[in-house]
């Protein structure tokens, strides 16, 4: 069965600095990996996904993520953080031989002005 | 294009009362998901529909929860009777149908059981 871990409950970054939100996964087959963001009292919004191909995936709002098969990681990154990036971020994994999608418990990102 | 619509947005009920949530997915999306999100946690799948067929309801507490998607479009999730532990946000999502497809989420219904 697949699993996903977000090891940090909260990440604090100063505005203008680069940010990284970590995600590691475990699957039996090939992974499909997703990042979502959730603002207060809102549903989850899709940021980006990795299905196959280039390990560096670019998504919405200037975010990108790098798929690293050897480290089973899919960390979310942004070169320069904005205060408006403050939100709850979820990593999710699905594998190509299973219909289930598993979400991490989320990482709260605080961008300090 | 309209997104996933859910209603109500908030619901407060007393324990042992019934409650129902409604979801209208994005037009043309064959797959519909119901999730429960507890405070400080990620969403957990309750049930997944492919058109009108429930293809994964293994996490649905069937003694008190039920769901339907009669015409393969909108869906209703019901709890009867509600318990204190059911307080959570109930999210609906839809996708075109492939495993690689993105899921699009509605705003959710925040349920408080007193």
Give an account of the 3D structure.
With 113 residues, chain A is mainly β. The mean pLDDT of chain A is 93. Chain A is globular and about 45 Å long. Helices cover 0% and strands 54% of the residues of chain A. Chain A contains no helices and 12 strands. The mean pLDDT of chain B is 93. Chain B is globular, with a radius of gyration of 13 Å. In chain B, a hairpin with a 6-residue loop joins strand 7 (65-68) and strand 8 (75-79). Chain B has no helices and 11 strands. In chain B, the strands form 2 sheets. In chain B, strands 2, 4, 5, 6, 9, 10 and 11 form a 7-stranded mixed beta sheet that branches. Chain B starts with a strand and ends with a strand. Chain B has strands at residues 5-7, 10-13, 19-24, 31-37, 44-50, 53-56, 65-68, 75-79, 88-95, 104-105, 109-113. Chain B has 114 residues and is mainly β. The A-B interface holds A 32, 34, 36, 41-46, 49, 51, 90, 92, 94, 96, 99-101, 103-106 and B 4, 6, 40-45, 48, 55-56, 91, 93, 99-100, 102-108, 110.
Structure summarized in a few sentences:
Chain A is mainly β and 113 residues long.
List the main descriptive attributes of the protein structure presented here.
heterodimer, A: mainly beta, 6-stranded mixed beta sheet, 12 strands, 54% strand, B: 114 residues, mainly beta, 7-stranded mixed beta sheet
């Amino acid at each position: 069965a697949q699993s996903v871990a977000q090891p940090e409950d909260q990440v604090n970054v100063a505005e203008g600095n680069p940010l990284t939100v970590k995600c590691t996964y475990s699957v039996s087959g090939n992974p499909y990996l997703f990042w979502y963001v959730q603002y207060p009292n809102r549903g989850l919004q899709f940021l980006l996904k990795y299905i196959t191909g280039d390990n560096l995936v670019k998504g919405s709002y200037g975010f990108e993520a790098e798929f690293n098969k050897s480290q089973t990681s899919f960390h979310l990154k942004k070169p320069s953080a904005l205060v408006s990036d403050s939100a709850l971020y979820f990593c999710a994994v699905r594998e190509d031989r299973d219909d289930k999608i598993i979400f991490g418990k989320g990482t709260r990102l605080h961008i300090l002005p | 294009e309209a997104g996933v619509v859910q209603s109500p947005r908030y619901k407060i009920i007393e324990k042992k009362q019934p409650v129902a949530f409604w979801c209208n997915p994005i037009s043309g999306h064959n797959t519909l998901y119901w999730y429960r999100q507890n405070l400080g946690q990620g969403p957990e799948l309750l049930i997944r529909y492919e058109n009108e067929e429930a293809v994964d309801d293994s996490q649905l507490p069937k003694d008190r929860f039920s769901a339907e998607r009669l015409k393969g479009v909108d869906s209703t999730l019901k709890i009867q009777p509600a318990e204190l532990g059911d307080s959570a946000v109930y999210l609906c999502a839809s996708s075109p149908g492939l495993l690689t497809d993105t899921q699009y989420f509605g705003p959710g219904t925040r349920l408080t059981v007193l």
